[in-house]
Amino acid sequence: MTEESSKRQNEKLVVLATFDNPSEAHRLRAELEANGIRASVSNENSANVIGASLFGRIAAISIEVLVLDADLNRATEIKNNYLNNRKETPVPEWTCHCGETVDAGFSTCWACGVEYQEKN
Q1: How far apart are CA 77 and CA 100, in angstroms?
Q2: Which residues contact 91 (CB under 8 A, 6 or more apart)?
């Protein structure tokens, strides 16, 4: 093992951001990686197993974007730019693949937990 790989192995992962929506977490991860920062998404599968309540995803499970502690300052700048520049588009009323109609503003199907995906 080289000194560099040994050093990287001992670095601590920290939570950069939390989301209720896995697609938002993955968009931020992609933005970080496009800027040269390695990142990962955690707890995505736990949130899917638990599913959703009538009021949206269960709040006890947050989907996390993780970065190395050494990259935290630069990653925070990228995250802030990303969040400030993204366009908030309200989710319209939509019909899930399972057949349920989901009210406007909700990005998760209450019946099956699938996330809304904007049609191109």
Answers
A1: 39
A2: 104, 105, 106, 107, 116
Question: Is this model's pTM higher than 0.70 or not?
Answer: no
Could you tell me the residue ranges of all domains in the chain?
3-86, 90-120
CATH number of this structure's domain 3-86:
3.30.70.1530
Question: 115 has which bridge partners?
Answer: 108
CB atoms within 10 A of CB 70: 14
Cα(31)–Cα(33) distance, integer angstroms: 6
What end-to-end distance do the CA atoms of the chain give, in Å? 47
Q: CB count, 10 Å around CB of 44?
A: 15
pLDDT tens digits, one per residue of 4-58: 555 556 689 999 999 877 878 888 999 999 999 999 999 877 644 445 555 554 5
* Distance separating alpha carbons of residues 69 and 116, to the nearest angstrom: 32
